[in-house]
Specification:
This protein is an all-alpha fold and 165 residues long. Helices cover 65% and strands 0% of the residues. The N and C termini lie close together (7 Å).
């Protein structure tokens, strides 16, 4: 049960993090940007009272970041489709698997670097007061996570519970 709950929490945090950016009238969440491309760790932005210019700038930076990765993502999709359509006994199956793994690794590296670059660019858009508020929110989130870990340690699931797996 704990693993299921943690999986749900992680999925919600990753998948829905950029939805938190959407504030009433804020403009976030449109044009496909709300899917969290490169902004999973920046979900606190919706609470920073960003100006319209800041929102527009961040949205533009995010779109640019996504557009830079789009060709690699399409290449990966094509390779994955080709690999999945192959029979495991086909000649070239292992080579296709190796090529797919290499492409996956390259895209993962590119995504990590793009996210780091985007976070730095977004951070530069924020005012000093917003940066301070962001640091406070992150510290509070870390404290909540630590409390959750302590709670889990104090209240372990009973042994032999199949839902805990």
């Amino acid at each position: 049960m704990r693993k299921i709950l943690l999986s749900i929490i992680a999925a919600a945090a990753i998948g829905g993090s950029s939805l938190a950016l959407a504030s009433a009238g804020g403009g976030f969440g449109h044009d496909g940007w709300h899917h969290g491309h490169g902004m999973a760790a920046m979900h606190e932005l919706g609470k920073l009272n960003l100006s319209d210019a800041q929102r527009d700038n961040i949205k533009q930076l995010s779109k640019q970041s996504f557009q830079q990765l789009k060709p690699q993502m399409e290449t990966l999709r094509q390779q994955r489709r080709a690999f999945e359509s192959m029979e495991p006994t086909a000649s070239g199956y292992q080579t296709a698997a190796d090529n797919l793994a290499t492409t996956e690794a390259g895209l993962t590296r590119a995504r990590v670097l793009a996210e780091a670059s985007l976070r730095a660019q977004v951070y530069n858009v924020l005012t000093p007061a917003q940066r301070s508020q962001l640091a406070t929110m992150r510290a509070q989130r870390e404290a909540r996570m630590q409390q959750w870990k302590e709670f889990q340690a104090q209240h372990p699931l009973p042994e032999g519970n199949p839902s805990a797996q």
